[in-house]
Every structure is written in C-alpha cells, then in structure tokens.
Design brief:
The chain is α/β, with parallel strands linked by helices. The protein is about 25% helix and about 25% strand. It is elongated.
C-alpha cells in the first residue's frame, strides 16, 4: 500500500488536528477519462452563457464545476442557441473558446456564427464523460471593431451540450516568451512580488505531490503539459522531509530536486523548492538537514533566475517566535550561496498565519523575520477555511508580502466535496491584490484535490486537455490558463 499525504488543518481544537494528522489513504487505479479538446487562450475575456440571449434552452446550476452563476442547458432540438454580444476595441483575428460539458457519448455539433456568418460548420462537441466534466473547444474568427454577435446553434435533434461560457481572446500573440523570459529575476518590493522591471506580478501554478509517492507524475510529458497546455508560471517541487522523504535518502532526494529544477528551467517556469516539513511541526527538528540541503541547492542553482526557496512548509504546534528563529538561522546560510533568490517563510498553524491555532497575522506584522527579500506563506482549503481565513489573508496582504504556496477547493485534508464558490472568492481576492498562488496537487492521488484521474500517472498520461482531469483539475486549469498580464514597462 502506498500512503498518501497526511494533511493537517484544523478548524479549531487539538482533536481535529490529531485526526487530520492521522489521515492516510491509498491510490486505487482507475481508467482515465478520454481526452477532450482544450485550447483556451491565455488572456481571454469571459462571457458567461447565463448572461447571453438563450433560445430554446434554460439557465441551470445543477451540475458542479461551472464558472459564474450557472450554465445553459440546450433544449433537445435543432436550432436551439446561445448568442453573446462581444465588443472589440479594433478589427482583427480573435480566438473563441467555448467551455462545455456533454455527459452523453453522442457528439452534439453546433454551428458557430459571427455577425451572422458561419465560421465553424457543425463544430464537434463530443462527450466529456460526465455533465460535471467540463472541456473547451476553440476556433479562430475575425471580429469587427465595436459590437459583434457570436452565436452557437445546435444542428441536431439532440440539441447542444451544456455551455458554461465563451472566452474571447483578441490579445496579440506573446511571441512565445515564457514567464521567466518575460519577468526575469523576481524580487520582493514592499508587499508585492516584482519582476525585473520592478512591477508587481502574480504567478499561478501547481505543486507536485510528495516525490516519494508520486514521482511518476513528474515526467517530461506532464511538465510539457503544465508549461504549454496549462500555461503555468510556476511549479512547486514538494519534497517531504519525513514520511519516507528526504531523511531516508538525502542524496537521492536532493538529486531528484536538482533534476526537476532543471526541467522547470528548460520550460521557462519558476520553481519553488519546497522543504515540506509537516510532522513534527517544529522546523528546528530539521534545521541541520535544511542547512545541508539548501546549501547545495543554492550553490548549484544560484546562477538561475527562476527559483524561490520555501524553507518550512507547515509549522504547527510552535510559536511564531520559534519559527522566526528557525528562519533567521537558515536564511543567512542560503544567502552565502545565493544572495538574490526570494525566500518564502512558513507561518504558524500549518501556514495559516496563526488562524488555525487561534492567532492571526498581527504577530508576524509586529515581529517580522529579520531578513530582506522574503515573503510569508499562507495555505487554505476553501471548503474548510471560510471567512475568518479569507479576511486574514486580505488584511495580511496589505501589510506583509504573502505568497499562497498551497491551496485546495476541498476540505483541509484535500478531499471531499469541492467548494468552487468559496474558492473563487479567494481567487478574486488574490487577483485583486497580486498574491501569487500554487494549487495542491499535480498528481493522480485518489483524493479530490489531486487534479488527475486515478491511474493517469502510471499510464504516463494523457496529460493535456480536460479529459484526464477531475473536476478540481478542470477548475484550476482554467484559472491558471488566464495568466497575469505581466507588465514590462
């Protein structure tokens, strides 16, 4: 039996924390869903179907995973349609992407028209495996300056698929520049993470699962997909210290992290080196190991401009002063080898800024780590961590540089039902305040928080599109693909 990650995020009380620490599940193989077409643009404007003009259809919200407040269920009739009004600043080519679900095995083709002219005749919208499994289909069309009408009309008696939204990308092509090519060396400026131009940026990406369990999910193919299909800016390399991790084979795990850093670098992504201490919760337990590990990592990769060092994943059961003491002993060791790379410091109570142990961000604000070019980490799981956590993150981001290095749409164990509505509130806040984020996790663990269907990694894919993804994977992929508009001036 292969253990899965033991998460520990109490809402309140020691009993909950103990229960969370004892969680351990195994991954059962399952056949991956068939891949679906997925070519959404990276800088699109989303137009929700429920706000469009609907003919022979109904706005519903009974199938999870949609964006906005609902989706359109087409009537089972040829001619049923959804029509959007889209404004374009200037005439030119645009990428149109429809997000849809088709819980049947029958193709439900539609004609796509722009300003009355057919631009895609009977475009296919095949089965997605379930009505809660959302996919995307794209085409290119010419828009005129000003107001345009875009209509998707069913062409068979089965009607169309359920349509969630239309995304329209009229942005000029990026020229293929990667996030690292665009932003260069990152640094902390005030409360923000800034690029080489001194402008605040928001990175979005994924975290691996524990390398001792799910290294088969970190392959050339999966990283290609993360970089080019998901359009991710950052990969968090999650190396556990205990639970069968680093302490069992320091040389082997260090070499594995070296390799993944190099692979992320080759794909133009930023890489967070995550010292994934979890149990015991006192980071001092692993201070000597951390000094050895980060000395080698920083020495070898100091010439790279795409790293961030996360030095304590989730401290727990200790005071903020204890965590600060650990950071102030480790950071100078790193700086001797690498003076430029930002360091991410874990916070009290499973990196909740203290909330899960009855505190809040004020203890960090009053007693910050005595070091420069650092940020503080915050973790949340939206189903469990409600307004108290959201409000703490909002307040903290106004006074401290904060990086959300781990979050999920489920409960604090990364399992159970997805709360996409609460998750979107966090996403909106982080976008508004330029808080970078990483989602847990890029694996096929059987929990709902792992993005791939069970069995995907052992079968070496498929990695691209929405077909191999669980609902949480589809949801977070959509949000990673709508990349930050990195300022360069």
């Amino acid at each position: 039996m292969r253990p899965a990650r033991s998460l520990s995020r109490p809402l309140a009380g020691a009993a909950t924390a103990v229960a969370a620490l004892l969680i351990g599940l195994t991954t059962a193989p399952a056949a991956p869903a068939a891949p679906a077409e997925a070519l959404a643009p990276a800088a699109a404007v989303t137009h929700e179907a429920e706000n469009a003009v609907v003919s022979q259809g109904a706005v519903e919200s009974n199938h999870a995973g949609f964006t906005g407040t609902g989706f359109v269920n087409y009537a089972n009739a040829a001619g049923s349609s959804v029509e959007w009004t889209v404004d374009a600043a200037q005439a030119g080519s645009a990428t149109l992407t429809l997000r849809y679900a088709n819980g049947t095995v029958t193709n439900r083709p539609m004609d796509i028209t722009v300003n009355g002219a057919v631009v895609a005749d009977e475009k296919a919208f095949g089965g997605t495996g379930a009505w809660t499994s959302w996919a995307t289909a794209s085409l290119t069309a010419q828009l005129k300056a000003g107001t345009n009408t875009i209509r998707a009309t069913a062409t068979t008696a089965n009607g169309g698929p359920n349509v969630d939204h239309l995304a329209v990308d009229t942005a000029p092509p990026s020229g293929g520049r990667t996030p690292v090519e665009t932003n260069g060396q990152l640094t902390v400026c005030g409360t923000k993470l800034c690029n080489q131009y001194g402008r605040p940026v928001q990175l979005r990406g994924m975290s691996t699962h524990g390398l001792q369990w799910y290294s088969q999910c970190v392959t050339s193919g999966s990283l290609n997909a993360l970089a080019t299909d998901w359009n991710a800016d950052v990969l968090r390399i999650s190396m556990y210290i205990q639970e069968g991790g680093y302490e069992t084979d320091p040389r082997g795990f260090t070499d594995r992290v070296h390799s993944i850093i190099d692979q992320a670098t080759a794909r133009g992504m930023y890489a967070i080196v995550d010292w994934h201490m979890l149990d015991p919760g006192d980071p001092h337990h692993n201070l000597s190991r951390a000094k050895t590990f980060f000395t080698e990592i920083a020495q070898r990769h100091s010439g790279k401009n795409n790293l961030l060092y996360e030095i304590a994943n989730e401290p727990s059961g200790v005071s903020w002063s204890t965590i600060r003491s650990y950071a102030e002993q480790l950071i100078p060791v790193i700086r001797q080898q690498d003076p430029d790379t930002p360091v991410l410091v874990g916070t009290r109570a499973w990196s909740s800024l203290g909330v899960s142990e009855g505190a809040d961000e004020t203890e960090v604000v009053a007693n910050p780590v005595n070091a420069t070019n650092i940020m503080y980490t915050f973790h949340f799981y939206a189903y469990s961590h409600r307004d108290e956590y959201l409000n703490t993150l909002s307040r903290a981001a106004d006074k401290l540089p904060v990086f959300v290095t781990e979050f999920g749409t489920q409960n604090y164990a990364g399992e159970g039902s997805n709360d996409f509505a609460m998750s979107q509130r966090y996403i909106d806040l982080m976008a508004a305040k330029k808080i970078s984020w990483v989602n847990w996790n890029y694996s096929d663990d059987n929990r709902t928080g792992a993005v791939f269907q069970a069995g995907t990694c052992n079968n070496n894919g498929p990695w691209t599109g929405t077909g191999p993804l669980k609902p949480a994977g589809v949801w977070v992929r959509d949000r990673i693909r709508t990349a930050d508009d990195f300022p360069t001036g």
